[in-house]
Amino acid sequence: MSEYNKPLPEIQPYSKGYWDGTKQHKLLIQHCNSCDSNIFYPRRDCPKCWSQELDWIEASGKAEVYTYSVTYEGVEEAFVDDLPIILAWIDLPEGIRMHTNLVECEPEDVHIGMAVEVVFRDVTDDITLPYFRPVKRGV
Ligand SMILES: [Zn+2]
Question: Selecting from 1.10.3470, 2.40.50, 2.70.70, 1.10.10, what CATH number does the domain 60-139 have?
Fold first, then answer.
């Protein structure tokens, strides 16, 4: 594995379950057992009812592009090789709107409403990052 030189998440006690999930190539989201809400990003308390009765559920990994933007220049040096970078807000069927990078596609191929799926990249021995890519037709 080549040296990963970009920022890495700082794992907190309440987000450890999420990062343990990505390491197993599972996209986990929090679920509140008190009010039945799905929660993202990971938190200590449910943002709707303040309960701490939170569990993890596995998301389908499917989503739809809500909106996106493309960055062609003006990034920190560590990200230059990734240009153009496609940042997107995506809607998960679990009721979650998530910020992500779209990968394995060209900017001109992205459109609002496009079906995407999670893909995982093991960037260090300890950290696996989730990205999303277009769902390939006929697979
Ligand atoms: Zn709740």
Answer: 2.40.50
